[in-house]
Amino acid sequence: SYYRLKQVDFNSDFSYSFVRAVNIERAHSDLQIFPNPSRGEIQLSISNYDGEIHLKIFDLQGNEVLNLVGKEEELNHQLNGQLKKLPNRMYIFQTKAGKKEWKNKIILNN
Asked: Are 33 and 43 spatial neighbours (Cβ–Cβ below 8 Å)?
């Protein structure tokens, strides 16, 4: 991608910076949550991890809506039972597994 900045002074004069090439490499995540948007059923998968997973779900106002703990298969079962009870909107999934932590935006559209 290519970017440049526009600076506007208080007197409305403006100038542009030089064009810069920016290469953003996306980090591979061990966590997969799919499908997104979801119709009430989600699969949460963490590669190369077999321990306990802590999942907190927040609404966009920062209120904790759900708090689940368990191994992957058990957590998915609990999660899908609870998601069908939640209203349609966007949520923040905060997932912790061992020393790793992820935050993902998930859209629920039952």
From this structure: yes
Beta pairing partners, 97:
53, 100
Q: What is the pLDDT of residue 22?
A: 85
Q: Of all helices (H) and strands (E), which one includes residue 75? A: helix 72-83
| Mean predicted confidence (pLDDT) in 3-32 | 87
Residues 65/86, Cβ–Cβ less than 8 Å: yes
Identify the three-state secondary structure at position 34: strand
Q: The tokens of 4 are what?
A: 């440049």
First to last CA, the chain: 36
Taking only the tens place, the pLDDT of each residue in 59-103 is 999 999 999 999 999 999 999 989 989 999 999 999 999 999 999
83 secondary structure, DSSP code: H
User: Are 31 and 46 spatial neighbours (Cβ–Cβ below 8 Å)?
Assistant: yes
Alpha-carbon distance 81 to 76, whole Å?
Answer: 9
